[in-house]
Amino acid sequence: MDSFEHRDGQYYAEGVALEALAREVGTPAYVYSASTIRGHVARLREAFADLDPLICYAAKANGNLAVLTLIAEAGCGFDIVSGGELARVLRAGADPGKIVFSGVGKTAAEMEAAILAGVLVFNVESEPELELLGEVATRVGRPAGVAIRVNPDVDPKTHRYITTGKRENKFGVDLARGEVLARRAIAHKQLRLRGIQCHIGSQITEVTPYAQAVERTRDLALRLKPDAPDLEYLDMGGGYGIYYRAADAPALVDYAAAVRPIVKGCGLRLVLEPGRLIVGNAGVMLTTVLYNKQSGAKRFVIVDAGMNDLIRPSLYEGYHRIWPTRGPPPPPLGSEGGEAPADIVGPVCESADFLAIDRPLPPVEPGDVLAVMSVGAYAAVMGSNYNDRLRPPEVLVDGDRFAVVRERESIEDLMRMERPAAAYRTLGASSGETVS
After folding, report:
1. pTM for this structure?
2. For 28-39, what is the mean pLDDT?
């Protein structure tokens, strides 16, 4: 569910008309709905209510400070994957005791910052990482909470780029190795084994893989529990599907029903790490039509947003519904309608720069504004300045009000950190020595 709707011949984000908003802030622009974000958190809590899960929002999905603040105010914790995300969620008001630190490539500096901040656990993904974490915790003189990320070898049946729980993926360790690492953590003086974690992928639209993964993860945790006095969490990760093209994702109650008999009564608190589920359908991207172009039988609609603003179609073969903000309503979910197909393409100098291929779209003219749906996750956060394009603004709508929560970049912003090579240094030279 979301708070974007078509009424009176226009698309609205809550109480704000999207076409008027585009005229006000310019395009491209990302627009997020506060009520949708709050609503998704509430529905997730309701679905899993009897399990009382710790919800840790995956900040990588959308890291805008205003969005993170909304989620922190809703009582959620955070799943982070870098020192930058740690600083960002803390600035947004996160409770450090509700932060889990994931990712395969944590540095010693990131570990130290997270230990000193008091994060709940590190989701450890390899033997060398566990060793380094133990060294850092010993050096700073503070214990570090650990959750071993196991790879349950479950096929989530999603895109190959976003599956993470199979044997050939880079994430986690197999179950047998996970037990070895867990016992090493138990024996370490400065490490506290607090959880066992799995995460099998993203945009998963079947519940059976979750049940399989959670059961295997729970069984390992229960084997360890007699020797692990601090073990209290069973983390099933995230990756719950949302609708992009059709209403084909399971209901939240279905995910909960699949794991309830496995988790209920096991003595471990469930941890959820949703990202896309909370913010994905809470955002749209507004883009303006620049030109119509006909090449033989091929129709192109050229817009001012490109793959640098939304890379999912090029990178993941991601599908996003696209429709004009003014005119007749779009076809229902799962139906593309009977309009003439068009390639909706951007200005970036790459053949892969497209938002949609052969997409039914009503006639549009230069100056018309299109809404690209379901871009609340993995859009702005994956943007770039390729072709020296300016990153779009981000706008948060709450009722009939809006706020620009990230300004559009300027040309000066693009070059702020660069400078001519006026003076060179040789390796080992002091900062005051130059070579002409």
Report:
1. 0.93
2. 98
